[in-house]
């Protein structure tokens, strides 16, 4: 005889306590990838070669410096925000209680 019992599969949704830090980490990961690359090309093309009329070789070096500074700023901001979340700096204050006269 065939087994007609059904197997119950339990779906475990995302843990609500971990959504906030995960979302923050995802945002900073995207910033670490996109911000330095985009600022490199924008600063090289628009600022250094366009406004300051620097030769392309020097504009590459200056654009790379801008990208390195950007990645350090994003990384420092990520450490500050994630460290603050871990210590509970970002706790929401309770709403003020209403006094009844």
Keyword list:
single chain, 101 residues, mainly alpha, endoplasmic reticulum, Vma21, transmembrane, Hypp3873 protein, membrane
Protein model, in words:
This protein has two helices and no strands. By secondary structure, the protein is an all-alpha fold. It has a domain at 37-88. Helix 1 runs antiparallel to helix 2 (56-87). The longest helix is centred in the first third of the chain and has 36 residues, at 16-51. It is flat. The N and C termini lie far apart (75 Å). The mean pLDDT is 84. The chain crosses the membrane at residues 21-41, 61-83. One of its GO terms (cellular component) is endoplasmic reticulum membrane.
Strand content: under 5%
What count of helical segments does DSSP give? 2
Mean pLDDT: 84
Shape annotation: flat
Report the helical percentage.
55-70%
Low-confidence stretches: none
By DSSP, the count of extended strands is 0
Distance between the termini: 75 Å
Query: Which H/E pattern describes the elements?
Result: HH
Please describe the biggest sheet, giving its number of strands, its sense, and whether it closes into a barrel.
none
**Helix-strand category:** mainly alpha
- What Rg, in angstroms, do the CA atoms define? 25 Å
Transmembrane segments: 21-41, 61-83
GO cellular component, one term: endoplasmic reticulum membrane
Keywords: Cytoplasmic vesicle, Endoplasmic reticulum, Membrane, Transmembrane, Transmembrane helix
InterPro entries: Vma21
